[in-house]
Automatic annotation (TrEMBL):
<dbReference type="InterPro" id="IPR036565">
    <property type="entry name" value="Mur-like_cat_sf"/>
</dbReference>
<dbReference type="GO" id="GO:0005524">
    <property type="term" value="F:ATP binding"/>
</dbReference>
<dbReference type="GO" id="GO:0045227">
    <property type="term" value="P:capsule polysaccharide biosynthetic process"/>
</dbReference>
<protein>
    <submittedName>
        <fullName>Capsule biosynthesis protein CapB</fullName>
    </submittedName>
</protein>
<dbReference type="InterPro" id="IPR050061">
    <property type="entry name" value="MurCDEF_pg_biosynth"/>
</dbReference>
<dbReference type="Pfam" id="PF08245">
    <property type="entry name" value="Mur_ligase_M"/>
</dbReference>
<dbReference type="GO" id="GO:0016881">
    <property type="term" value="F:acid-amino acid ligase activity"/>
</dbReference>
<dbReference type="GO" id="GO:0016020">
    <property type="term" value="C:membrane"/>
</dbReference>
<dbReference type="InterPro" id="IPR008337">
    <property type="entry name" value="Capsule_biosynth_CapB"/>
</dbReference>
<dbReference type="InterPro" id="IPR013221">
    <property type="entry name" value="Mur_ligase_cen"/>
</dbReference>
<feature type="domain" description="Mur ligase central">
    <location>
        <begin position="38"/>
        <end position="156"/>
    </location>
</feature>
Amino acid sequence: MNGLVALVAVAAIVGLIALLEAWWYHHQLKKIPYRIHVNGTRGKSSVTRLIAAGLRAGGVRTCAKTTGTLARMIFDDGRELPIFRPDRANVIEQKRIVKTAVAERAEALVIECMALQPLLQSVCELKLVRSTHGVITNARADHLDVMGPTRLDVARALSATVPVGGTLLTAEDRDDSLRVMSEACQDRGSSLKNITAADSASITPEELAQFSYLEHAENVALSLAVCEQMGVSREVALQGMWAAQPDPGAMRVHQHTISGDSWHFVNAFAANDPESTTRIWDAAYDYFPGASRRVLVMNCRVDRIDRSVTMANACVDWRTYDRVVIIGSGTDVFLRRLLKGGIDQNRILCLGNATGDEVVTMLLESFAAEAAAKSSQTPQLVASQGDAIAEGSSSITATDSTTTTDTDAGVLLVGIGNIAGPGMALAEFFEGQEGWDRYERPQSTPARALEMV
């Protein structure tokens, strides 16, 4: 009997301590007037950084935390520190972020949702963040094994971070997803502000060109709307956003001249759902219309088999590409899907954990072998084309120099799938290797091509 009494007493003490800790934590949360919880399928990290930069520029003392490519704590002076994780990522680390923000006397905390499980997303909002402003960038078909099976289920899962008695802002534009978010807002007594296509179109090409990377217009419009909620003007917020350090997974383009040809590499590894990646491929296709070779570089992850399947199913129907380079782990799943979709095995290079130098070398060898095979098989065709040129024929005007543009690229590489592991290593190679310079858009080139994805 005495043992049972002691057990009840211990349980009561533990329960009391838990209640006191919860009370103290919520008391600490209230010391941060603006708490912005950023969720969504694509663009969470970029939007988190943009909002924080805009608020800082407006004089709001702001801390931020991104989860994306590399987990980072961003302080009011712009300093960044990596998030220490003794083991796997855990949502409880959000409490440490709040504690740090309070110690920094932050007036605003912009925090990226790090949960995937719908229940954990709800816990993050209702227990750990209790946001005044919620942000859902978009709701697309990704992580369907956790939030699916459909895109609309993803919208429902993301709506778990709608604030109670606050404001939700989103750039999602599908009516069915917006209805789901609206119902969540009604349930929690929050208002919904939707960023429309017109809002995104108001971000001018000149404004987008000020970013050091390829930023999406809807991300900027969404972030500006959040800053406006805190009283920061559009002009001031933009100045801060232009000066902010981008996420390591931000989409950049680098260029180099190799064997006399101009090569361009588009880092789109962070876009890993079929819809976003399809848009990027189409945009890159149009942005560099003079490319003679187009190459997909897919980084696979053995723990993201579902993503490899959905990405392979999507890209078999894309506009023509000359090669598919498959890197990473679990590449066999992606490879089998490509072959099943009718992609010629001679257009596929499965390179595992190849370095940047090895990827470039293997592509050069593949292109040379293909050219040699064609020249040995079609000598009469080559001769007839030479006769046509000599006679001034217009039958092969596709090779006329008048078709060239400011964005001609001998080889275009687009990295997709996953940024982690070999994807990050490859991106760092193209961004840091001598000779690979950041691409500067010629003034005559339309600025919106890659931004509107």
